Amino acid sequence: MSTPRAAAHAALALELPTDVRVMAYARNIDRPDRDVVMLRQDGVEPHPAAPESHRRYTLTAIVVGAKVDPDGGADDNLDALLEDVLHAVESSPILGWTEARRGTWLNTTAPAYEVTVTVVHRKHPTTTEETP
């Protein structure tokens, strides 16, 4: 059985560079030693176009850069990682995004973005299928 989070995880892992760690769940981690994208499921609602058969899930992709330095290199690295994530989302037929906001990861100095990602999902009585 595939879940919306699993589908988003698979889509991002397929499209992102292999040196980016894609995690299916958001966790409290120490400052990472490599770039990380974590997924957090935040909500679900009936899809307005087909409320009885489709649901729209809202996830947050937490994009955490590994570089932390004062000379701008960390910002450049994070901005490039964000572009990779947005491209991966836009390349997927089941994912979309609505906004990205800058911040830091938890109480660390690791620069981060939170990207609001949507997944349209249709569940059948015996199987689960993602649809665009």
Give your account of this protein's structure.
With 132 residues, this protein is α+β, with helices and mostly antiparallel strands. The protein has a single domain (4-130), classed as STM4215-like, CATH 3.30.2000.10. The protein contains 2 helices and 6 strands. The chain has helices at 4-15, 73-91, and strands at residues 21-23, 36-46, 55-64, 95-104, 111-123, 128-130. Strands 1, 2, 3, 4, 5 and 6 form a 6-stranded mixed β-sheet that branches. Helix 1 (4-15) packs across helix 2. The longest helix has 19 residues, at 73-91. The two termini are 18 Å apart. The mean pLDDT is 85.
Write a brief caption for the model.
This protein has 132 residues and is of the alpha+beta class.
Per DSSP E runs of 2 or more residues, the count of β-strands stands at 6
Distance between the termini: 18 Å
Report Rg.
15 Å
Question: In what range is the share of β-strand residues?
Answer: 35-45%
> Main beta sheet, described?
6 strands, mixed
Features:
alpha+beta; 6-stranded mixed beta sheet; STM4215-like; elongated; 2 helices; 132 residues
List the helices and strands and how they pair.
Layout: H1 4-15, E1 21-23, E2 36-46, E3 55-64, H2 73-91, E4 95-104, E5 111-123, E6 128-130
Parallel strand pairs: 1-2
Antiparallel strand pairs: 2-3, 3-5, 4-5, 5-6
